[in-house]
Design brief:
The complex is a heterodimer of chains A (252) and B (451). Chain A is α/β, with parallel strands linked by helices and 252 residues long. Chain A has helices at 40-48, 72-77, 95-109, 117-130, 135-138, 148-162, 178-191, 205-210, 231-239, 242-251; strands at 2-11, 14-24, 29-33, 54-62, 65-66, 80-83, 90-94, 141-142, 166-170, 197-201, 215-220, 223-228. The longest helix of chain A has 15 residues, at 95-109. In chain B, a hairpin with a 2-residue loop joins strand 1 (90-95) and strand 2. The radius of gyration of chain B is 21 Å and the shape is globular. The chains are: A alpha/beta (252), B alpha/beta (451). Chain A binds chain B through residues 48-52, 71-73, 75-77, 81-82, 84, 87-93, 97-99, 101-103, 105-106, 109, 141, 158, 162, and chain B through 382-385, 387-396, 398, 402-403, 405-407, 409-410.
Amino acid sequence: MLIIKDLQASIEDKQILKGVNLTVKPGEVHAIMGPNGSGKSTLSAVLTGNPAYTVTGGSVEFYGKDLLALSPEDRAHEGLFLSFQYPVEIPGVSMVNFMRTAMNEKRKYFGQEPLSAADFLKIMREKRSIVQLDNKLASRAVNEGFSGGEKKRNEIFQMAMLEPRLSILDETDSGLDIDALRIVASGVNTLKSKDNATIVITHYQRLLDYIKPDFVHVLYKGRIVMSAGPELALELEEKGYDWIKEQVDAQQ
Amino acid sequence: MNALKQYIDLYDECRTLIEQQSPALLNTLREHAREKLETARLPRKGCEDYEATDLEAVFAHDYGVNINRLPFDADPGETFHCDVPNMSTCLYYSSNDAFHSSATAERNIGQVVVEPFSMAAVDHPELMNAHYGRLASLDNPTTALNSLLVQDGLLIYVPDGVAAERPIQLVNIFNAALDMMVQRRLLIVVGKNASVKILACDHTQSPDYNYLNNQVIEIVAMQGSTIDFYDMEESTPKTHRVSSIYVDQHEGSNVLIDGITLVNGFTRNNYHVEVNGEHAETQLLGMTIASGEQHVDSHTFISHNAPRCHSNEMFKYVLNDNAVGAFAGKILVKSNCPRVEAYQGNRNLCGSPTAKMYTKPQLEIYTDDVMCSHGSAVGQLDEDALFYMRTRGIGIDEARRLLMQAFVADVIDGVRLDALKDRLHYLVEKRFAGTLSNCAGCMQACRPNNK
């Protein structure tokens, strides 16, 4: 579904991604790990179309479409979703209004009629239960005054509502206690199917105990320098990144 | 050049006619107003408190003035229809500056008096004599000009202890087929422990003509009274308005004034509040949504003349395209007024690089032991929030609209009239979506069955 070829990107003239290659197929879970500053969050920002970043080379194909040519909203309609590392607070915009607008914009994109209020609330009720999101949170402004755990659960709730084909979870485990981590992970697993895929960006093996990856990649200095099965995450947990860094730096 | 001169000349020429067509009480102020205007000048852009606003230019235009009091149309309620839910208000119309007879037919709802000055001068002479022109300062040239030329007005009087059951709604309509200037005038007197909610809507029927409304509103809040005054403008790009509201608050009174500009051409709103009694509360709110070449300037002055009073002021502007906004607010706490709490805020959103906002918050305090604050900010839409919404599939235009709506939501929530609050949320949504028609903005109950 996703084919990334030699992707290069910069922010304010600073080159961050220096040629990323990655292919994701339906049903797969990919974990991307790597030391701080290696470009993990940049990769998710570039894939979702954050205007702060400039793509300087390479291509991204998503279900045969040129992803980089699409606006962020159209990428969402095509089935791309990003769970933010730092979900943004939007005072004054209620969760209900936000979600209804998002879902109806997608329906409009596919030429469908907007959802009725009753249908929408029914879906919302169903999906809320997946991450045990309190009804009171759903009636408040987007992320405003939410705790760290609530914000992350809210991200997965939105993912459940929008039913993306490819979800990128950017450090969804950061700031979560064990219980919240379990709820979030089980939410992600519930939503998993043979038709959708997940990219998990994380620093720690811990999350991967709950969300089992099929592939683990190491991103370092703007490139994927190592790819392997889930055992690589365990090895990294034990040995850290230094041995990979040495290996890569020696090659250069 | 002196734009005032043409009006003084007009007065000198037509004095007899003006006086004949007015209640005698209104004639008592004219000479004094004329004296003041003799030496006055209208402020030009750059004058103190007029950093962005040129009144001289606005008044220099050659407007028609209806000194002969010719009637304009048969019944504004007949010709000015709109699709709005029933607000259950007691409804009154003014067409240009004349109150229509059918509109005043249901005067005296319960014990509440709503009458044109021409009637009120006969029915309530003592009240009119005691309060007409008492608050409005002739040192302000536009107020003096209103006092010089005004020929009628509307009295809203709520006697002691009376709670007006239904809100009173006054729909002001410009509909003349020529460029025209009017002197609208309101006197609101609310007795001891009485309460009332008032909604004034300004509309313009013909978008092709230049209009100028130079209005003066005097509000007297007696001991323990509660007054809500909502002043909404939804006019046209060629409609100009200079509004001066004067408020006198007695002990324990609670006054809310909310100025709302959805669509206009040029607007200058002056608010002058004298808090004269202990434990009085003042809420002064403002919301402006401006685009195109709209110009909205608010000037507020709250004087705390008694201890233990509380005022809260919040003005929000959303400016797009080439719109210009201005806010200058001053809070004065006089000496020997301990325990006053006064807060002032002005928050502004510039949605385009060419929109301009001028803001000047001021505090002047002569008593220790008070709590006062002021704050002012001008900013753009939050880029992170915009991107977050876009990743959820909300298009950039829709995302901008949602954020702009959210920005003004708390000012709308300050409205203490539920039907109006709901209506405003709806109107603001339509305003940002660019689908607000002239008629949709009106809150008349003229077609109550129409949703």
